[in-house]
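Database export, one record per block. Field names are fixed; values are copied verbatim from the stored entry.
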Amino acid sequence: MSPAGKAQSVHNRVGEVRMMCGLTQERLAQAVEVTRQSIIAIEKGRFTPSIYTALKLAQALQTRVDDLFWLSESEKEQK
């Protein structure tokens, strides 16, 4: 939890950057060595990848990890 007691959420722009690069979910999955279902789950925010996978995503999309993923405060308090 953050110092204010609010939970933080991980957000991403993987889908947006992937499309800007002209890659399909399948092609990105092959480049990162994960399944297409994993890419779908990451893009929809249902799954937060490991640091290793996040680095591979950034490499495949020719960008930086912090340009793909960021934290934001959630309005709900986590108990």
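Remark 1: Residues 51-60 form the longest helix (10 residues).
Remark 2: The mean pLDDT is 90.
End of record.
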